[in-house]
Amino acid sequence: MSLLEVEHLRIWDGRTGVVLVPDSSFRLSQGECLAIVGESGSGKSLTCRALMRLNRSGIRQSGRIILNGVDLAKLSDKELRPYRGRRMCMIMQNGMRAFDPSRPVGAYLLEVLSIHYDWSRSEMNTKLSAAMTSVGLQDPSAVMGRYPHELSGGMLQRVMIALAIVLEPDVIIADEPTTALDAVTQYEVVEQFVQLRGRIGSAIVFVSHDLGVVRRIADEVLVMKEGVIVERGKTSQLFTDGSHPYTRYLVSSKEAIRSHYLQLMGGTDVAEG
Amino acid sequence: MLKVEGVSKSYRRNGWLGGERQQVLRQVHLEWNRGESLGIIGESGSGKSTLGRLLLGIEKPDQGSVTWNGRPVTDRRVRRGTISAVFQDYTSSIHPFYTVRQALLEPLKLVGGQPDTKDMGKLLRQVGLDESYMDKYPHELSGGEAQRVCIARAVSSAPQCILLDEAISSLDGSVQMQVLELLKQLKESSGMGYIFITHDIQAAAFLCDRIMIVCSGEIVETVATPQLRHVQSEYAKELLRKVIS
């Protein structure tokens, strides 16, 4: 049985009536990593946020979102709350905007945990520290005392991943988690995601327009164009022979840069080597 | 020729009164020759953007000099019509109340020409747009279109060098490719050279003849692109190892 099933998801702008995502259906099994790729404006982020009903208020949605047999679309906001964070956890593109800027990072983390669990404060601190160390944050207590603006983008991203490790959600939704990072930090965060998959059995929805990153992490890929899923397939198959022209266009545009680089480096794939 | 000699730069960490100074660049030397495209690569905080601003003459070094054919680039007359820039944030690069026409007109007036619609149409076609964009405002453009307008504007004064600071980083993969192709094509057709500042090694390797690797305000290594795999320093090797291709 699928862990998450999305059926006939339709998203539209409630004021203008413009349909943004006409009819999307996809499913996700336990432990699977599904990437959603497409250009800006293709509806990737809208789809993600719709899963947790986090789109801004003017945006309306219909359709079924079934997590472990429960239709989230039928729940009230209050009933949905325990699912947000605990069962479905979101990792955002911009750490600086995802955290409360007026409080230290630690205060935010403890608040999230105290909503979902009745652990003691020291218990929460121990768990958070362990998770933060495991994602390469050397000094957890110092990080927790800092405000978001005092941490780099890569560190904030790691903090969000650490929180996900503690929450052990069923599904992690990562919306362009590496886009705002430089190449080296990007590599390190992607490695964290790869390890995360091994450590907790969460399924991952990974939104990205960076096909190199997708190739590294995803089992399957959904290709979206103007709100429509134009193709879905295994990562390796999609990269070598996508059937939709748009898929081939996306892959080929990156391929020129990639193959030139690989040729320069002597034909070996350094990332996988 | 653009020449950087012994340039150092530091900023005060906490405001301008008191606070310790943070060294951003240390004793940087570099030369850029006409028609060349030079890639400057480094992590965030390595000082590459600061170096870019010094090259553009919009900031002054604490020590050392930046000169264009022997004259300091901080003099506006030296850089006008010789060097222009394209930045990462295309949304804030064009005056929001200006149409594409006005945005293109401004640099043309500065270099002292009698620009007409025909010239501007030609510029727009050069970057893969057309006259229909002339009366659009920045918010009506997609990211790729806005960045093309920025490139058209940079090209309009027929400079010898365009400095691109993370100019393609916030664009979609497919649009990045189109912009890179456009830059390559402009280089071939008009002999334009680039200083391409980025953290994306693959894009730099695609566009540039020579690649310079910057770390913590110092130039670690400079290498001709075909020799990229033979980099010597440990840092450069590590950087290449972390490329997700």
Automatic annotation (TrEMBL), chain A:
Membrane topology, from the record: Peripheral membrane protein
InterPro entries: AAA+_ATPase, ABC_Ni/Peptide_Import, ABC_transporter-like_ATP-bd, ABC_transporter-like_CS, P-loop_NTPase
Keyword vocabulary terms for this entry: ATP-binding, Cell membrane, Membrane, Nucleotide-binding, Transport
Domain ABC transporter, residue spans: 4-251
Record Gene3D superfamilies: P-loop containing nucleotide triphosphate hydrolases
GO molecular function: ATP binding
Record localization: Cell membrane
Transmembrane segments: none
PANTHER family according to UniProt: DIPEPTIDE TRANSPORT ATP-BINDING PROTEIN DPPD, OLIGOPEPTIDE TRANSPORT ATP-BINDING PROTEIN APPD
UniProt record similarity statement: Belongs to the ABC transporter superfamily.
Protein name (database record): ABC transporter ATP-binding protein
Organism of derivation: Paenibacillus mendelii
From TrEMBL, chain B:
Keyword Flavoprotein included in the entry's annotation: no
Keywords, sorted A to Z: ATP-binding, Nucleotide-binding, Transport
Alphabetical list of Pfam families matching this protein: ABC_tran (PF00005)
GO function terms (MF aspect): ATP binding
Domain ABC transporter: 2-241
InterPro entries for the chain: AAA+_ATPase, ABC_transp_ATP-bind, ABC_transporter-like_ATP-bd, ABC_transporter-like_CS, P-loop_NTPase
UniProt similarity note: Belongs to the ABC transporter superfamily.
Stated name of the protein: ABC transporter ATP-binding protein
Native source organism of the sequence: Paenibacillus mendelii
